[in-house]
Amino acid sequence: MRLVIAIFLPFLLFFTIGKPIAGIICLILQLTVIGWVPAAIWAVYALSQYNTDKKIEEATSGGGS
């Protein structure tokens, strides 16, 4: 679901992953038609990094038994 948000409403993705400053910057970029594509690419990249960070966090916190 977040991937769809990243493509259609890139600024909103940053608010859902806890990066409101980046969300505001992305919104400013997105307000121009030309800026929409870089904003969407940036949001998809940020989502990828967020997912990777979550997987690393889960592996390091839940790995010891």
Give a short account of the largest sheet. none
Residue runs with pLDDT of under 50 for 5 or more positions: none
* Average predicted local confidence, pLDDT: 88
**Series of H and E elements:** HHHH
Helix content: over 70%
Count of alpha/pi helices: 4
Beta-strand proportion: under 5%
Q: What distance separates the N and C termini? A: 33 Å
Dominant shape: elongated
Radius of gyration: 14 Å
Number of strands: 0
Which structural class do you get from the secondary structure elements? Answer: mainly alpha
Number of domains: 1
Task: Write up this protein.
The chain has 65 residues and is mainly alpha-helical. It has one domain (2-49). The protein has four helices and no strands. The chain has helices at 2-8, 10-16, 20-30, 33-62. Helix 1 packs across helix 2 and helix 2 runs parallel beside helix 4. It is elongated and about 45 Å long.
Keywords:
single chain, 85% helix, mainly alpha, 65 residues
Give a brief rundown of this model:
The protein is mainly α. It has one domain.
Secondary structure topology:
Blueprint: H1 2-8, H2 10-16, H3 20-30, H4 33-62
Helix pairs in contact: 1-2, 1-4, 2-3, 2-4, 3-4
